[in-house]
Design brief:
The chain is an alpha+beta fold and 153 residues long. The protein has four helices and five strands; from the N terminus they run βββββαααα. A hairpin with a 2-residue loop joins β4 and β5.
Length: 153
């Protein structure tokens, strides 16, 4: 089956489709980031599961007054930096959701640094050294602990 020929960029007020070597990322402006990667007709999807946890974590930990456009751009750039396609063009554009905790630390750090830079962060004692900031974030991340279920008759 022949692949359809697509223009490089298609714009509308609700949807922007960017195509590069038949790999598609769909960004819906109404939801900030919804992305799909298509490689050889096999879709994989990221419905806000890799970017928004880090944005929320960074916003909460920095106690920012609002989330700015620059903070969202910093978050997306942090996500982009973790793209498997940067190392191998046959890999997906977005990292696997299994890596969401590590990705969230990177995104939260970018969001926090941007919030501090813009004067939006209200939290005190935010570390300024990158490794200290990442450790500070990790310490405050929620960790799910499940009790074993006991079945009684």
């Amino acid at each position: 089956m022949d692949e359809p020929s697509l223009p490089q960029v298609v714009h509308s007020h609700q949807l922007r489709i960017t195509a590069r070597n038949m790999k598609l990322v769909w960004l819906q402006t109404s939801q900030i980031l919804t992305a799909r990667y298509i490689n050889h007709g096999i879709p994989a999807e990221c419905n806000n599961s890799t970017c928004f946890p880090g944005i929320g974590l960074g916003a909460v930990l920095s106690e920012c007054r609002l989330v700015s456009k620059k903070m969202l751009v910093a978050a997306v750039k942090a996500l982009k930096a973790r793209s498997p396609a940067l190392k191998n063009s046959d890999k997906p554009l977005l990292p696997d959701v299994q890596d969401v905790r590590d990705i969230s630390v990177n995104i939260a750090a970018a969001v926090i640094l941007c919030a501090v830079e813009e004067g939006l962060a209200q939290a005190e004692d935010i570390p300024t050294i990158d490794s200290d900031l990442r450790e500070w974030i990790r310490i405050q991340m929620w960790e799910a602990e499940y009790r074993p279920l006991v079945y009684t008759r």
